[in-house]
Amino acid sequence: MTLNEFSSNAGTVVEELLREYGYLILFAWTFVEGETVLLVAAYLASRGYFDIWLTMLVAAVGTFMGDQAYFWIGRKLGREWFLKKKGKWTEGLNRVLDLIHRWDAWFILSYRFFYGVRNISSVAFGLSQLSFFRFMVLNFLAAFIWAGSFGAAGYFFGKAVEVFLGRVKEYEMYVLGGVVLMVIVVALIKWWRGKKNEPTVETVLK
């Protein structure tokens, strides 16, 4: 299976789950991770299956509560699980802790936009000296910024596709005629080049 086939299948599975379970699967998925499911849900909202504002709200609440849970894990259990035991997460956690120490507010507001760092970052916030209240406020703002950005991206992409397909359908005869004409022109050019390069009697006798 190629990467494109895997991505297509994954997108189909997400869409089927959303159609079956609606906002429940959106909340559960964004609690754990979320970019893919939010983009697909927003796209479906553009097709009329969901309300886009409720979609972004559910995604924001899901990601906010999920990261609060990861923060609690880092605060209560993180040092025992991750720092004392030298595992594959230790190096990554130390880098994140350094970023938090330097730019805690900016990092909290932006880390959701970097693929693959959300969960480990939330745990690292709990391991840091960051107060629970400060993280909660910044995390709340970040969750709505993230949900609004990805939600709008998926929604407007869906609308753009709808407009594009509508335009293609409206002018399909012109599009089809243009394609046929292009094929004919290419065929004539190839024929002419082949004719031009055919050996003549003089060149053969030489």
Report on this structure.
By secondary structure, the protein is mainly α. It has two domains: about 170 residues, no CATH class; about 35 residues. Helix content is about 85%, strand content about 0%. α6 crosses α7. The longest helix has about 40 residues. The chain is elongated and about 75 Å long. The termini are far apart. The N terminus and C terminus are likely disordered.
Q: How many beta-strand segments?
A: 0
Low-confidence stretches: 1-8, 200-206
Helix tally? 10
> Average pLDDT across residues?
76
Task: Describe the largest sheet.
Answer: none
**What is the end-to-end distance?**
56 Å
Share of helix, binned: over 70%
Task: Assign an overall shape.
Answer: elongated
Q: Round the Cα radius of gyration to an integer and report it.
A: 27 Å
Strand content: under 5%
Helix-strand sequence: HHHHHHHHHH
Secondary-structure-derived class: mainly alpha
In total, the number of domains comes to 2
Provide the fold topology.
Elements: H1 3-21, H2 23-32, H3 35-46, H4 52-76, H5 78-83, H6 88-110, H7 118-127, H8 132-170, H9 172-196, H10 201-205
Helix pairs in contact: 1-3, 2-4, 3-4, 3-8, 4-7, 4-8, 6-7, 6-8
